[in-house]
Specification:
The protein has 3 domains: about 130 residues, Integrase, DNA-binding domain (Double Stranded RNA Binding Domain); about 110 residues, DNA polymerase, domain 1 (Orthogonal Bundle); about 190 residues, Intergrase catalytic core (hpI Integrase, Chain A, Orthogonal Bundle), CATH 1.10.443. Helix content is about 50%, strand content about 10%. It has 18 helices and 7 strands. A 4-stranded antiparallel β-sheet has the order 1-2-3-4. A 3-stranded antiparallel β-sheet has the order 5-6-7. The longest helix has about 30 residues. The chain is elongated and about 125 Å long.
Length: about 475
């Protein structure tokens, strides 16, 4: 009732009523009197007022009848400064359907009388202040809810995964982690993604991994667990490790629940598929028979460069090619803390690859345009190249050309190294060609030889074997420098 009074009071026009000329007080207002007053107002064209009797200073119920037929119920009172005021309580309706009947009107007037007698004589200002306070309280509650929501979002699993992916920017694992989180956490378990990271239990993560394993994606489950574990580990160390962004401290992670789950090592076994020589020749022949395009050129280049990582090769731009020197520079960001300072990986462009690189270079409009692009300004996706390899693999299977079962894009890198080893190329030179195993102190700080002659000789030999041409097995060892 009080809220109704306040609403009516704060939005009402000020009503004033004339005092009876003879100072006498009539009896309480009746429905019949209101009807008579309404009829008189229409006839005379003037407002007619009716008031209930009340003790002096207590305020009283009044009814105002207008010539238009409108009948307003008001509460008339005296303010602290001695002036009179009136608050509209509502319209009068004897049935109580479209307004207040007399019983309801007196109840509301009684509420205001009690308030007035308590010492709150400036009722209009009182209700205006209450309304302002309500607005302020509502706004404070809204802001508190927004702050809580923002805090919850900052502390959510999704926020933690986003922060972890941001820490991987520039590294090869960035896209892999981002894709796994999006597909198998954000989209598959949206409620879990919005839950507070610090409150999620190991059993909930177990359900996420179980869904993948049940779908026959054990390897994906193992990778997802590893990335989740790394994200939580980073959040746990944030308070003590100055190299970790401070945003991780806000998650309040004290326990790495992923540690409680098995490592799923049975799904992380090293792959060993390498194409046999007949399979390699069949693959090469079918690859060269495909329509000319960025995907075919990229796979061809990856092979003729000694089995390069597709993702790394696809980042190459026009400026990375030195046609006069016959070289291509890749930037190896694989490894910890190498994103900001990639390792410069120099490779020779053999004769079989030179026309392809020259054609790709001519298609580039600017020096920083991607060398392998289907559109000219956006680098080819490694998934597109992988799809072409899968297509060729399917064709080979249909033709009975597979000796050891299906293979994937990543198996071509292993195939190249396997066959280069069979050609007598030393492990040191193979490591230089494929840019792996070069993280030791000697390689980082002392051995500055670019091994270009050794790499060129090895890749030329490998190119002959790849194309099915005769190649003499000649041991090619790295040239060891004598320390000064």
């Amino acid at each position: 009732m009080k809220s109704d009074l306040k609403r009516k009071a704060t939005h009402a026009d000020k009503e004033t009523a004339p005092e009876p000329a003879n100072g006498t007080r009539a009896g309480i207002i009746t429905a019949r009197q209101i009807e008579a007053a309404a009829t008189k107002a229409k006839a005379t064209g003037k407002d007619e007022w009716l008031t209930d009797p009340a003790a002096r200073g207590a305020g009283r119920l009044g009814v105002r009848c207008r010539p238009s037929g409108a009948r307003s119920v008001v509460y008339r009172f005296t303010k602290s400064d001695g002036t009179r005021d009136a608050l509209v309580l509502g319209n009068y309706d004897p049935t109580g359907v479209r307004g207040l009947d007399l019983t309801e009107a007196r109840d509301k007037a009684g509420e205001l009388q009690r308030l007035h007698r308590s010492g709150i004589t400036d009722l209009r200002e009182h209700f205006a202040a209450m309304e302002q306070a309500d607005k302020a309280r509502t706004e404070a509650e809204r802001e508190a809810a927004a702050t809580a929501q923002a805090r919850a979002e900052r502390g959510s699993l999704q926020a933690l995964l986003d922060a972890y992916c941001k820490s991987l920017e520039g590294r090869q694992s960035h896209d892999d982690a981002e894709g796994l989180f999006r597909l198998h956490v954000t989209e598959a378990f949206p409620a879990l993604a919005q839950a507070q990271a610090a409150t999620i239990k190991a059993e909930q993560f177990r359900d996420v991994l179980a869904k993948l394993i049940d779908a026959g994606k054990g390897r994906t489950a193992a990778k997802l667990r590893a990335y989740l574990r790394a994200a939580y580990s980073m959040a746990m160390r944030a308070g003590l490790d100055p190299t970790i962004p401070g945003t991780f401290s806000a998650f309040g992670v004290e326990v790495n629940q992923l540690e409680r789950l098995p490592s799923l090592s049975q799904f992380s076994k090293a792959l060993d598929r390498a194409l046999t020589l007949p399979e390699l020749h069949a693959f090469w022949k079918r690859l060269q028979g495909k329509p000319e395009g960025a995907a075919r050129d990229a796979i061809t280049a990856a092979l003729l460069l000694g089995g390069q990582r597709p993702r790394q090769l696809l980042r190459a731009v026009a400026a990375d090619v030195d046609e006069s020197a016959g070289t291509l520079v890749l930037r190896d960001i694989k490894g910890r803390n190498r994103a900001a300072n990639p390792r410069r990986h120099l490779l020779p462009i053999v004769a079989e690859l030179a026309p392809i690189i020259k054609r790709r270079r001519l298609l580039c409009q600017t020096a920083d345009a991607p060398l392998f692009s289907a559109t000219g300004d956006v680098q080819l996706r490694d998934e597109t190249a992988s799809e072409l390899v899968g297509e060729i693999c399917a064709d080979m299977a249909a033709a009975g050309e597979l000796e050891r079962g299906p293979f994937q894009m990543r198996d071509l890198r292993r195939t190249a190294e396997t066959h280069m080893a069979a050609l007598g190329i030393s492990s040191d030179v193979r490591a230089q060609i494929q840019s792996h195993g070069l993280g030791g102190i000697q390689q980082r700080h002392y051995d500055k030889h670019d091994y270009l002659p050794e790499k060129r000789a090895a890749i030329e030999l490998w190119a002959l074997r790849l194309q099915g041409k005769a190649a003499t097995v000649t041991p090619i060892k790295s040239r060891r420098k004598v320390a000064a």
